[in-house]
TrEMBL record:
Homodimer. InterPro entries: Alpha/beta_knot_MTases, RNA_MeTrfase_TrmJ/LasT, SpoU_MeTrfase, tRNA_m1G_MTases_N. The keyword Cytoplasm applies. It catalyses: cytidine(32) in tRNA + S-adenosyl-L-methionine = 2'-O-methylcytidine(32) in tRNA + S-adenosyl-L-homocysteine + H(+); uridine(32) in tRNA + S-adenosyl-L-methionine = 2'-O-methyluridine(32) in tRNA + S-adenosyl-L-homocysteine + H(+). NCBIfam families: rRNA_methyl_1. Residues 18-168 form the tRNA/rRNA methyltransferase SpoU type domain. GO terms for biological process: methylation. Keywords: Cytoplasm, Methyltransferase, S-adenosyl-L-methionine, Transferase, tRNA processing. This is tRNA (cytidine/uridine-2'-O-)-methyltransferase TrmJ. Belongs to the class IV-like SAM-binding methyltransferase superfamily. RNA methyltransferase TrmH family.
Length: 278
């Protein structure tokens, strides 16, 4: 999916949790995380001690237009300061830390987040460094552990990917799972008169083409053909298109037959052929 579906006239959601990136190493990863936030309706970003300083031009490039998130990003010297005004915090980690904390998936965290935000609380989602993740002491500052059902043989996620998965679960819940578009309105379903006329047409032409080689099997074959089209749920436009297809096939066959007949007639009437003169 690309930016082709972006509607810049719409307002951005403002009531989601805060995303906190702890000591991100690369501007590219910050930008990728910000792009994922924008995709899934998260707008509040806090960055703890970014390694390459701030602002970061590479973050802008990789954010792919989600500049408003970067423009409003808050920078903190340490995680404690970034969490000070929050009421509930989930720390993302792929490793067991030996702590007596609830361990929740992204979907469960989304439900908990929505409930707490509805109650007026401020919620934060904390993501760690690209290379080492969060330190155990940092995880201890959170209320719950957030983890994902990843392959245990290869559990390391790119920072932007991790944010994307968690943000997706949040936005799916917050938006009620509404998709950005649905199948367009279809043409009206063909009525039985339309279908029966088509059946008459195709069966007549199949008969002409000697398709029904066995008279005994013809009734069963006709039923099978009709059932194929019944299962499709044809619209009136579909039936009209099928009529045209059959007519084109028949016309093409007749044109070929006429050309063949003309060639044969030309051969029999060529000079030097046929009966000679006395």
């Amino acid at each position: 999916m690309t930016g082709a579906g972006t509607n810049r006239s719409l307002d951005w959601p403002e009531n989601g949790p805060v995303v906190i990136l702890v000591e991100p190493q690369l501007g590219e990863n910050i930008g990728s995380a910000v792009r994922a936030m924008g995709n899934f309706g998260l707008t509040r970003l806090r960055i703890v001690n970014p390694r390459e300083g701030w602002p970061n031009p590479k973050a802008v490039t990789f954010a792919s237009g989600a500049d408003r998130i970067l423009d409003n990003a808050e920078i903190f010297p340490d995680l404690r300061a970034a969490l000070a005004d929050l009421n509930f915090v989930a720390a993302a980690t792929a490793r067991e830390r030996g702590m007596q904390k609830a361990v929740m998936g992204a979907d469960a965290v989304a439900v908990e987040t929505a409930s707490r935000i509805a109650g007026g609380e401020q919620v934060g989602l904390v993501f760690g460094r690209e290379r080492t993740g969060l330190y155990t002491e940092e995880v201890s500052l959170a209320d719950v552990i957030l983890t994902l059902p990843v392959n245990p043989a290869f559990a390391s996620l790119n920072l932007g990917m991790a944010v994307a998965v968690v943000a997706y679960e949040w936005f799916k819940l917050a938006s009620g799972g509404a998709l950005p578009f649905q199948q367009p309105d279809r043409y009206p379903i063909a009525d039985k008169a339309d279908l029966l006329a088509f059946f008459d047409h195709v069966e007549r032409e199949l008969d002409e083409a000697l398709f029904f080689r066995s008279p005994e099997k013809k009734p069963v074959t006709i039923r099978n053909i009709r059932n194929i089209f019944h299962r499709v749920g044809l619209t009136r436009q579909d039936v009209a298109t099928l009529h045209g297809m059959v007519a084109a096939l028949v016309e093409g066959r007749r044109v070929r037959e006429a050309r063949t007949a003309a060639r044969l007639e030309g051969r029999t009437g060529a000079p030097g052929e046929g009966a000679g003169e006395n």
